[in-house]
Specification:
- With 251 residues, the chain is an alpha/beta fold.
- The protein contains nine helices and eleven strands.
- A six-stranded parallel sheet has the order 8-7-6-10-9-11, with helices on both faces. Strands 1-2-5-3-4 form a five-stranded mixed sheet, sandwiched between helices.
- Strand 7, helix 6 and strand 8 form a beta-alpha-beta unit.
- The longest helix has 16 residues, at 235-250.
């Protein structure tokens, strides 16, 4: 019999929709990635509060988005996506390099909203030997099924920390002796930098790059040479080039 209170998409991305099912999921220990809401009032406000208390991002969307998520079924103005993996703390990522006896090598994603890009970055980070990924809770893709698929399973092996404040997370890394390298066209040639010490590379969003606040937090700005008429690369492609330069230097 069809379950009218929840819906599983064909690609196995866990979608919960309907007010009561989402409320119960929020009250339980369900590992939710994002809650999508259309409208306000009544139990929707309760859902907003429960999500906030749990630190789960809430996105306001049009009804058409919820219709797509629910497969056309009655969604009652709300849907939630279950996370496909557990998030860790920054200290857990720093513990990786400590255990290996190497200098920290961390990737920071500043508002990478395309799950395909995030998945590709995670895949490359794992193959390049990075210790972990840091993403913000807001305006960022999370560990959903699309990210897992695009990462080709790498998301199961590399720790990902999801933080409320990216600037504060960077401050914490700095306190631990990690140098922060931002990526921007205003920076210096990436090959002229020494990445053999403790470092974290910040990859900016697909459309706007690194935010001004995060730029101010960076110790250095680095860039890729651009020889053609197009002056930018896909975020995951650029991230891959930077990561493999770090691997090359450390090898």
């Amino acid at each position: 019999m069809e379950n009218k209170n929840s819906f599983i998409k064909p690609d196995n991305e866990n979608i919960i929709f309907g007010r009561n099912p989402v409320i119960e999921a929020l009250k339980s220990d369900a590992n939710l990635d994002t809650v999508y809401i259309s409208g306000n009032g009544g139990s929707l406000n309760l859902i907003r509060k429960l999500a906030k208390d749990k630190g789960i991002p809430v996105k306001d969307v049009h009804d058409s988005k919820l219709m797509k998520l629910s497969g056309g079924a009655s969604h009652q103005g709300v849907a939630a996506i279950g996370a496909c993996g557990e998030y860790v703390e920054i200290d857990d990522i720093l513990a990786v390099s400590e255990k290996k006896g190497t200098k920290p090598f961390i990737i920071i994603c500043d508002e990478i909203e395309d799950p395909h890009n995030l998945g590709a970055i995670i895949r490359t980070a794992e193959t390049a030997g990075a210790d972990g990924i840091i993403i913000p809770k807001r305006r960022s893709a999370g560990l959903n099924s699309t990210v897992f698929k695009t990462s080709a399973g790498a998301a199961s092996y590399i720790p990902v920390a999801r933080v409320s404040n990216l600037a504060s997370a960077i401050d914490k890394l700095k306190e631990k002796g990690v140098w922060i390298y931002g990526t921007d066209a205003s920076g210096s040639d990436y090959t002229k930098n020494d990445f053999t010490g403790s470092c974290a590379i910040v990859i900016g969003s697909e459309g706007f790059g690194i935010s001004k606040l995060i730029q101010k937090k960076c110790d250095f700005m680095i860039k890729l040479p651009m020889m053609g008429k197009i002056n930018s690369l896909n975020a995951s492609v650029a991230a891959g080039i930077f990561m493999y330069e770090i691997l090359r230097q450390r090898s």
